[in-house]
Amino acid sequence: MSQLTSAFRRSIRRLTWHGRQQRPRPSIERSVSEREAKPEKDLSRYSGQLFFEYLVVVSLKKSGEVYEPQIAYQFPKRENLVRSQKEEEENLLKAIPLFCFPDGNTWAPLTEYESETFSFVLTNVDGSRKFGYCRRFLPRGGGVQLPEVFCIISCLGCFSLFSKILDEVEKRRQICMAVIYPFMQGLREAAFPAPGKTVCVKSFIPGSGTENIELTRPADSRLEHVDFASLFKYLSEEHIIDIFASMLLERRVIFLAEELSTLSQCIHGVAALLYPFTWQHTYIPVLPKVMLDIVCSPTPFIVGVQRQFLAELQDMPIEEGLIVDLHTGEFLKKIGDEKDLLPKKLYKELLNTLQNQRKTCQSSEELNDLVTNTFVLFFVKIVGHYSSHIKRNREHIVFQEKEFRKSITSKSIRSFLKRFMVTQMFSLFMEELQGHPLAEEGFFERKIKEYNESRKKVK
Are 376 and 276 in contact (CB under 8 A)? Predict the structure, then answer.
């Protein structure tokens, strides 16, 4: 194993949180506030923050008989860092190259390469996450060349917006590297917009003059990092629900795909189905080859592996879980009880709604709304009565677990809750609610209210 790979593994152990070794801070978004569109109400959801921390260019350098990824350019260069900040930056910069080229070191110069956009996630020991938004392409010029990756590191999750930024970066790279710097500097000086708002960045391009680049954040901030269309392109409704059920009980799930973009888009999509809960374990949408042994971990994880490593994966002692092949749309490995995990009635409701209504969606926005509302309704029926079992006294707030579960009349839902309530995502969800008892009513709470009102009308 090369010196670079050894350093990378040491760094990633510090950056990526594995399972239950250290409990992260509660990262549950209780829900999205009705007044979130107002900037002053959106401080907890990114507005006003810097767009990004770093722009890093990663290129391939010859090392003996193979090529290894190395950082060729970094913006900005941070100075006067204290020791802890410097160590954090060093760990981050050591980890980035192999996430930009997770495919191993079998590269060779190319004459053609289709531009590819993908993302990865690094989780710190405190549970906080950094997103890496990547564009991999061949630089302009004649003859054979090696691809390079422009990677934007940000604590903000908004794939569609950063994809547009990478469009601008790639356009400028094909002119000259020097043209990228003023654009990124202008972006760094701009404040991240509130949901539904637009920020304008001025940038000069030789031969074209000054351009005004408008960057608009989606109005629904819950879905700004998600495109469910990719998920349904590769998987059937039944398989998506089976994966959802496995994730709810915090099992191990491995996704396989040919392209990095497919892996990152589909894995972000399935993770979003858990709203208002959040996956709290190992989460690596694009797993570098040198980290393949993570799939042997006994703790829960969601990881994405390139399909070219399937043979190596099959030789590993992987514990029980799901292996999902996005290329064929099938499960290569499963436990066998996936269709029995959810309450039967709710399983059928999920399946029928997705199968019958998905065909009527005319746009990705309509599909996103349908999928979100369908799965949120599932959670409303499962845990929507939680507020009746949070009791407050002068000293503290108590969640009455037994009463919460027993108040459900359906035996199958009670049985499911018995398993779901011991998961870390449920525990942290309840901790967040107890820690912020006066939090503003949001999307999930509104859906609970709508559901309860509709039931009253039926009666």
Answer: yes
